[in-house]
Amino acid sequence: MTEAASSEICSVEEAVGICAAGDNRGIDMILSEEGGRLLGVAMRMLTRRDLAEEAVQDTMVQVWRKASQYRAETGSAKGWLYTILRNRCRNILRDETRLTALPPDELTMMQDARQESVTLEGWEILPGTTRLKDCLASLDASGREAILLAHVAGFSHGEISARLKVPLGTVKSWVRRSLVSLRGCLS
Asked: What predicted TM-score, i.e. pTM, was given to this entire model?
């Protein structure tokens, strides 16, 4: 097999399997297939390219280390990959030492920009009719908004509560019920 043929783009699930077998080409395949989108999600959550690149790199390290622990029956490899990224971004956001390196006025400006940059209508522009799009459309508006803010924009439940001006328990209920509905709809 030629090197060009062996580096062909494959599914994320296949690439995770290649990583689990100890072959570092799996990471290259994941980055080739999903790297731009991973960086985009991290940029949206962190708003700083240096932190976003760090989050993607840390995600790839975790994928390499834990690829053998991935189980297809628990969810898609792509979902697993983005969950690792989202958790890494949230850990970076929690680590105040990285954010306090900025002057307070810049930090405030960055946080305000993050709040304003979230558009919840984006899910409607998914191409064609997809199961995810149909399932999102079947959710009530408050549940859909909570899910998108939590799992696309990366806001914590507390941040969503403040943004939507509803009690924290209400936000947690919306997210939990919406996730259950999405799982049922997508399975």
From this structure: 0.52
Q: Would you give the distance in Å from CA 62 to the centre of its chain?
A: 15
Contact 85, 56 (CB under 8 A): yes
Stretch 14-20: mean pLDDT: 90
Contacts 24+ apart (CB under 8 A), 131-140: 131/185, 131/186, 132/186, 134/185, 135/181, 135/182, 135/185, 135/186, 136/182, 138/181, 138/185, 139/178, 139/181, 139/182
Distance CA 162, CA 171 (A): 10
pLDDT (tens digit per residue) in 105-121 = 776 676 666 656 555 55
Amino acid at 82: Y
Instruction: Assess contact for 11 and 3: CB atoms under 8 A.
Output: no
What number of other Cβ atoms are within 10 A of residue 124's Cβ?
9
Distance CA 20, CA 160 (A): 37
Give the DSSP letter string of 121-171.
GGGGGSSSS-HHHHHHHHS-HHHHHHHHHHHTS---HHHHHHHHTS-HHHH
As given in the structure block, the two tokens for residue 73 are 């029956």
